[in-house]
């Protein structure tokens, strides 16, 4: 084989290898490019897939919890209706700021004026509050308990709808503060007679709750949780801490609930079970607060300059027959029946006895208050 033939063979082999190499490089580049495109498409699709799954899971959780939690007889109101009624929850419509969220004054499409309580973003507390209100307030009706009208549960939003109570909270009327939703010029000092009637209304509401087949313990009776209507009739509100007693005496709880100054002393001695007698104690403190216009959570200086608790101070004043001296100074003393005032304080101190068993039931309290009113009416007619 001649040299020319050998060179031709080498050239052919070289050309083949070069062509094969170019083809391999081209194939490799195309393969890598196609792989990268696939990876990008997968990567781009993953967040959307997870988001869809997250929404599906969330929707599933909400629907399951709703089906287990909500009584089908309760009125469910759609979010779109509440958005329209509150102008998308406008700050201008806020009439209250509770421990678990804002309260808005709203007008539904039906024309009804209502209070809309939108729970805050704290999911755990908000859910517990929502559940407690639904389990207790949702199925009871009484003239001295705020009327529950419906609810809305959409995603993480939890909203409760109530009748709108015109005059706002008792707290706003006892203290000289600029209150949301109540004109300052309209807030004149409450008369003694009005205060006694308000207390009587709260007592009747608690008596009703405590005597149900499954008694309800409110656990947070205080001035800001008592609403006043146009006639200054009392309506107990805010059942977020309320519990239904399944047995006959108490609801087992591992956490202390309530507001400082109103909580019964047994809570601080390690007895955390919710009982009707805890409500009775808080009610007694409320009676003293209504009469004196002093906040129960603030300490008071005695004659020696020592700071003591509100309940301790009240008991001391009663034991020294000083009731008339520590009435709210804004109460007109003209024609004030001193005997009625003394009886009022006696009932209050009876309710705040240190030992729960020594306190009266709310049924007894209502009877005692009735006696005061009857005696006063009789004396006024003579």
TrEMBL record:
Coiled coil: none
PROSITE patterns found in the cross-reference section: PROTEIN_KINASE_ATP (PS00107), PROTEIN_KINASE_DOM (PS50011), PROTEIN_KINASE_ST (PS00108)
Record's GO cellular component terms: plasma membrane
Sorted UniProt keywords: ATP-binding, Cell membrane, Glycoprotein, Kinase, Membrane, Nucleotide-binding, Receptor, Serine/threonine-protein kinase, Signal, Transferase, Transmembrane, Transmembrane helix
InterPro entries per the UniProt record, alphabetical: CR_Ser/Thr_kinase, Kinase-like_dom_sf, Prot_kinase_dom, Protein_kinase_ATP_BS, Ser/Thr_kinase_AS
Intracellular or extracellular location(s): Cell membrane
Keyword Cytoplasm among record annotations: no
GO molecular-function term, one example from the UniProt record: ATP binding
Residues of the Protein kinase domain: 89-373
Binding site for ATP: 118
Signal peptide range: none
Pfam families linked to this entry: Pkinase (PF00069)
SUPFAM superfamilies associated with the record: Protein kinase-like (PK-like)
Topology term for the membrane: Single-pass type I membrane protein
Transmembrane spans: 6-30
Gene Ontology biological-process entries: defense response to oomycetes
Main location: membrane
Assigned protein family: In the N-terminal section; belongs to the leguminous lectin family. Belongs to the protein kinase superfamily.
Protein name per the record: Protein kinase domain-containing protein
Gene source species: Ambrosia artemisiifolia (Common ragweed)
